[in-house]
Amino acid sequence: MSAIIPPWQARTDFEIFHGLASKLSELARGRLDTRYDLVATPLTHDTPGETAQPGGTVPDWREAGRPRPGHNLPAFALVERDYTAVAAKLAGLGPLAEESGMTVKGVTVYPRAEARWLADRCGTAAGGAASGRPLLDTDVKFCEAILALSGTTNGRLAAEGFARLAERCGPGSGLTALGESVAERRVVFSDTQARPVQVGASFEWSGKEGPERRYAPFTINTEHRKPWHTLTGRQHFYLDHDWMAELGEQLPVYRPPLDLASLGEHPPTAGVEGARSVTVRYVTPHSKWSIHSEYQENLLMQTLARGGPVIWLSVQDAARIETGTPGERAQIPGHRPARRSAQRPHQTPDQAHPPHRRLRPAVLRPQLLRPHRQPARRRHHHPTPLAERGVLTCLAAHPPPAASWPRWPWS
């Protein structure tokens, strides 16, 4: 939602998307109509598919027999897409939330009571694909649905999720009592308009939060004996998987910062006599004065800081370089204002003109492009050398002819 009412003929993003959906539905009649797609769903975390191939082995299909969906192949489903009803479905709450439930981190809850509440509060569609379903055709109604379907703002769902967790973690976990303590909590949209509202503890998150304590991650694991979301249920560092072992990444190891000069990047002090620079690893935890990367310019946030992006350096690295003009230098060792914020030129005026606002090249990790590598083998301790014209070559501006690319086993 916008911070202000859009002026004149401007519209909110919500209204724009609904307008696009309405026009798409109109144009789809007689053209797209209804189509069917075969959708592949990967074997995801916190599902039985996660242990479909035990031991971390990834056998070659040519050796292990034909692939099976849900085992060593994604699950497949035939999905009907009625393009003439896109706008109607976008403006209503569908029935699958009640029928199949909402699953978060392996825990499923059923918002049947919430669907009835939304129907009473927001009204129902009079006809079309969403006939009889709760309406979400305005931004306020959509916000009501978000608040009603989240355990952090709807204690009934939180209590139901904690009850499901208690069945797995045992009666001594205290999760049932935790659910009962938040069961009566409810936040509606008008509450958020009146004042900032604190959310409550929910099965959707790993931490606990309430009037008596601030949020801290993993407190549900440590205080209520909930297993960690790993194959062993415990914290561990070793990742027993063929692909990770092949690339030497089954254990966390130190990797120095990339040599940007060899990648065509040069520090801003290159060629400047007497200038100094340092190469550091860029770690981005939550900022103290923003919400993720947003709202740094918000007036309330700027009362807590100077509003510009900030980088924290070690005292040793900070002593080796100087950043910004003397008036910008912080008095605290290791605290420096950031100079690279190409999307916010009002904070860093020198970024408002080229070449600072050019597109930045992305550095890819070749191990994420797994299909172009040779099939993994068990107990490999070193990465297999890339075949000629392998992944790194395929990332070039002029890739090799298709005939020279690695072929799939079934092609």
Which keywords apply here?
411 residues, alpha+beta, 14 helices, 25% helix, disordered C terminus
Q: How would you describe this structure to a colleague?
A:
The chain is an alpha+beta fold and 411 residues long. It contains 14 helices and 8 strands. The strands form 4 sheets. Strands 1-2 form a two-stranded antiparallel sheet. A two-stranded antiparallel sheet has the order 3-4. It has a two-stranded antiparallel ribbon with strand order 5-6. A hairpin with a 2-residue loop joins strand 5 (208-210) and strand 6 (213-216). The longest helix is centred in the first third of the chain and has 16 residues, at 13-28. The chain is globular and about 75 Å long. The relative contact order is 0.07.
Biggest sheet strand line-up: 1-2
Going by helix content, strand content and strand pairing, the class is alpha+beta
What is the general shape? Answer: globular
The largest β sheet comes out as: 2 strands, antiparallel
> What is the N-to-C succession of helices and strands?
HEHEHHEEHHHHHEEHHHEHEH
Number of helices: 14
Helix content: 25-40%
Give the percentage of residues in beta strands: 5-15%
Uncertain parts: 324-359, 371-411
Average pLDDT, rounded to a whole number, is: 77
List how many beta strands DSSP finds: 8
Gap between N and C termini: 49 Å
From the alpha-carbon coordinates, what is the Rg to the nearest angstrom?
A: 27 Å
Secondary-structure map:
Elements: H1 13-28, E1 34-41, H2 61-64, E2 75-82, H3 86-90, H4 96-99, E3 102-104, E4 107-109, H5 112-122, H6 139-148, H7 155-169, H8 175-182, H9 189-194, E5 208-210, E6 213-216, H10 219-224, H11 242-246, H12 299-302, E7 310-312, H13 315-320, E8 335-337, H14 391-394
Antiparallel strand pairs: 1-2, 3-4, 5-6, 7-8
